[in-house]
Amino acid sequence: MSTAPHFDIDPAAFWADPYPALARMRKEAPIAFVPQLGSTLLCRRDDIFVSEKQIEVFSSHQPQGLMNRLMGHNMMRKDGADHMAERQTIAPAVSPRAVRVHWLAQFQAHADRLIDALDPAADVDLVRDFALPFSAECLKLITGLTNMRFQDMNAWSQAMIDGIANYTGDPAVEARCNAATSGIDAAIDDMLPVLEKNPNQSLLGVMLTAGMPMDSIRANIKLAISGGQNEPRDAIAGTVWALLTHPEQLALAMSGEVRWLQVFEEYARWISPIGMSPRRIAKPWSIRNVTFEPEERVFLMFGSANRDEAHFADPDRFDIRRDVSKSIAFGAGPHFCAGAWASRAMIADVALPTLFARLENLRLRAAEPVRIGGWAFRGLLNLPVTWDATQG
Question: What is the pTM of this model?
Answer without folding.
Answer: 0.93
